[in-house]
Design a protein that fits this description.
By secondary structure, this protein is an alpha+beta fold. It has a domain at 64-148: Thrombin, subunit H (Beta Barrel). Helices cover 13% and strands 32% of the residues. The chain has two helices and nine strands, in the order αββαβββββββ. A hairpin with a 4-residue loop joins β7 (123-128) and β8 (133-138). The longest helix has 16 residues, at 2-17. It starts with a helix and ends with a strand.
Length: 151
């Protein structure tokens, strides 16, 4: 009898305590599957619950002056508080960091490739701190660099 009661208790708890699955709505639009999530976003006190696009920026890497930089395959970037954009590109000789103004115009490059002080071998991770300093994890030299953004 105890086994039967235990089994019924386990089954009851499993049914009532299991997470409730929300129904996922799937649509096809122009040959693309769109999944609609009906769950409410997580709300953090003092922060907006929904993100909205404020500004869209586009940099034309096919433009001759930018194309000459050889960074069309750059995959990582950071943006500082003033809206300047920094692209990072490891697979080239010379400078590895390229600064663009908020309008997408190239300004300068810095961060020499190498193994000396302040030089970068292989960028594995980038970030920007609250003081607009670039944080670079250099896997090749096994060091972290903190670079003040240039003006």
């Amino acid at each position: 009898m105890k086994k039967l009661i235990s089994l019924l208790l386990i089954i009851t708890l499993s049914i009532f305590c299991s997470p409730k699955s929300e129904q996922v709505e799937k649509l096809m639009e122009d040959g693309v599957e769109v999944i609609i999530n009906h769950l409410e976003p997580c709300k953090i006190r003092g922060e907006p619950a929904i993100l909205t696009l404020e500004k869209e920026q586009s940099i034309d890497f096919a433009r001759d002056d930018i194309g000459e930089l050889g960074i069309a395959d750059a995959t990582d970037f950071e943006v500082d508080a003033a809206g300047n954009i920094y692209f990072f590109y490891t697979n080239k000789e010379g400078d590895l960091i390229f600064k663009f103004d908020p309008h997408g115009n190239f300004e300068t490059s810095f961060g020499k490739k190498g193994q000396g002080p302040g030089e970068i071998q292989w960028i594995i991770w980038t970030g920007m701190d609250s003081q607009d300093r670039l944080i670079i994890s250099d896997n090749g030299n096994r060091k972290i660099l903190l670079l003040q953004s240039v003006s």
